[in-house]
């Protein structure tokens, strides 16, 4: 079940941190590492710091975009060393562990997303995540080393996983249409929504005013399932037809 939880490191500069993260993961029983455009990998420093977690490094998947890293996930949790301008649904590290484990146990794919050493995650990257988690550090010195931040969240995942061992397993086979839409499906929906809102002049591409970010936050907390997603996409398609003037006339 822990194999449903992946750790995503975005644009890491120091290979030593990738090794440190791999070690932290293996200590806590996590094995799936995804690297989005690492600056220097594979590297001797990564292997040195992994000290024995070479299997996690060898199995690491390197991709070009965060979107590719999140493929197949229905829950993404982004980490942030500080508060951002746009308020977003937050989890504390403990809740992050509990949610990740509960949803991984239900067969969902989960991503814990970590940012660059110097700049963290961009707002755009954070807005692709359903929740944000902040490790409650000293406000005057809030930024942990990347591998240390991975360690804290991986420990919380392990704690939640150990607590769940005693609890009876909830294995309910869900209907495919009840499965949550994945992040890739949500991305296609957001593209379609944005185009439609431009078509009906609700969204001015010159003055977007955070509209898409607000809508991402709204739909992101709605746990949209597959059948609801087809309804939403259907509504957009019909709206675009009306906007183009080629909708079927309704027969009264
Ligand atoms: N200067 C950057 C700090 C990045 S630290 C910034 O202000 O955002 C590198 C990464 O470690 C962060 O992107 C995040 O993934 C993780 N991290 C560091 N401190 C954290 C904290 N207090 N809570 C959650 N994640 C943290």
From TrEMBL:
This protein's UniProt keywords: Cytoplasm, Methyltransferase, S-adenosyl-L-methionine, Transferase, tRNA processing
Domain tRNA/rRNA methyltransferase SpoU type residues, every copy: 5-155
Main localization (coarse): cytoplasm
GO biological processes: methylation
UniProt catalytic activity: cytidine(32) in tRNA + S-adenosyl-L-methionine = 2'-O-methylcytidine(32) in tRNA + S-adenosyl-L-homocysteine + H(+); uridine(32) in tRNA + S-adenosyl-L-methionine = 2'-O-methyluridine(32) in tRNA + S-adenosyl-L-homocysteine + H(+)
EC number of the protein: 2.1.1.200
Single GO molecular function: tRNA (cytidine(32)/uridine(32)-2'-O)-methyltransferase activity
Keyword Cytoplasm: yes
Superkingdom, natural source: Bacteria
Keyword Cytoplasm: yes
Subcellular location field: Cytoplasm
Function: Catalyzes the formation of 2'O-methylated cytidine (Cm32) or 2'O-methylated uridine (Um32) at position 32 in tRNA.
Subunit structure: Homodimer.
Stated family: Belongs to the class IV-like SAM-binding methyltransferase superfamily. RNA methyltransferase TrmH family.
Protein name: tRNA (cytidine/uridine-2'-O-)-methyltransferase TrmJ
Organism: Pseudomonas machongensis
Top-level taxonomy: Bacteria, Pseudomonadati, Pseudomonadota, Gammaproteobacteria, Pseudomonadales
Gene assigned in the entry: trmJ
